[in-house]
Amino acid sequence: CFLLRGYSIGVRLIDDFLARSAVKKCCSYSETTDMIAQVAFKMYLGVTPSVICSSAAGNEFSLILDKNPLVDFVEELPAKRASLCYCNILCGVIRGALEMVHLAAEVTFLQDRLKGDAVTEIGITFLRKSEDRKHKRN
Prior knowledge:
Number of helices: 3
Keywords: Endoplasmic reticulum, ER-Golgi transport, Golgi apparatus, Transport
CATH topology: Muramoyl-pentapeptide Carboxypeptidase, domain 2
Pfam families: TRAPP
CATH architecture: 2-Layer Sandwich
Protein name: TPC3L protein
Mean pLDDT: 86
Structural class: alpha+beta
CATH superfamily: Trafficking protein particle complex subunit 3
Strand order of the largest sheet: 1-2-4-3
Strand content: 15-25%
Number of strands: 4
Distance between the termini: 48 Å
Largest sheet: 4 strands, antiparallel
Shape: globular
Order of helices and strands: HHEEHEE
Radius of gyration: 16 Å
Subcellular location: Endoplasmic reticulum; Golgi apparatus, cis-Golgi network
InterPro entries: Bet3, NO_sig/Golgi_transp_ligand-bd, TRAPP_component
């Protein structure tokens, strides 16, 4: 439920992000992930997560949030809803925005402060192999 809502937000949010941030095209998955962490999170949530590359292939990354503003006013999840991933909306937003710029990715929560983890960790796995294309101008 939260993932689908987040996806819809991400699909629409990317236009605002591109218009307001004036960023240039990213050339690698690493650059894209850094842009998400350093520009997008700062712009919309006021935090800057750290980025960790977690694969030798360079297509898997983790965003580590020491502070997650979405949980500031959440005291505790109800016992009947303990499996609810409240902040899964962030995964949907990231996935939706990436798809709108033609980057297929799997985005999942790996750690969640609401479930007792020390940090919030979002995993991003880019699904297509990075292509090295050189554009020729006529």
